[in-house]
Design a protein that fits this description.
By secondary structure, this protein is of the alpha/beta class. Helices cover 38% and strands 15% of the residues. The protein has a single domain, classed as Response regulator (Rossmann fold). It is built from five helices and five strands. The radius of gyration is 14 Å and the shape is globular.
Length: 151
């Protein structure tokens, strides 16, 4: 079965979700994506990734091409989501970009120690955020070669 390209955005702030989606649309990166899944907390992200809970029955052969993951999430933290992803053969190779407002150096170290592919601090300025989203989209959905069979 041939599936389109999916991006999983794990973000609890509606403002940041809206800004991210607007940035992807403004930069026409949204045209490269067939589906954007938004998870509002760590539990929802894991349910999507592992086809449980609200996503029970989801086709597990179709995984996101990239995950944009906030760290400060309700229920289960972004680091815990990343740790679960890297511990499971089905999700360990999915590229994960930490997209967070955290300025904590320990968050950078922990993210890479747990297997993050990239760590990006969310710019506060709207124009800078839109540019950052453009660059993320161009790289992860344009230039990056995903693992075979991941999409």
């Amino acid at each position: 079965m041939n599936h389109g390209r999916t991006l999983l955005l794990v973000e609890d702030s509606q403002d940041d979700v809206d800004l991210t989606l607007r940035a992807l649309e403004k930069n026409r990166i949204i045209n490269e994506i067939d589906e954007i899944i938004v998870a509002r907390d760590g539990v929802e992200a894991l349910e999507y990734l592992f086809a449980t809970g609200a996503h029970a029955g989801r086709d597990m052969t179709h995984m996101p091409e990239v995950v944009l993951l906030d760290l400060k999430l309700p229920k289960i933290s972004g680091h815990a989501v990343l740790q679960r992803m890297r511990a499971d053969e089905r999700t360990r190779r999915i590229p994960v970009v930490i997209l967070t407002s955290s300025n904590e150096e320990k968050d950078v170290f922990t993210s890479y120690d747990l297997g993050a592919n990239s760590f990006v601090r969310k710019p506060i300025d709207c124009a800078e955020f839109i540019e950052a989203a453009r660059q993320l989209g161009l790289y992860w959905l344009g230039m990056n070669e995903p693992p075979p069979g991941s999409a």
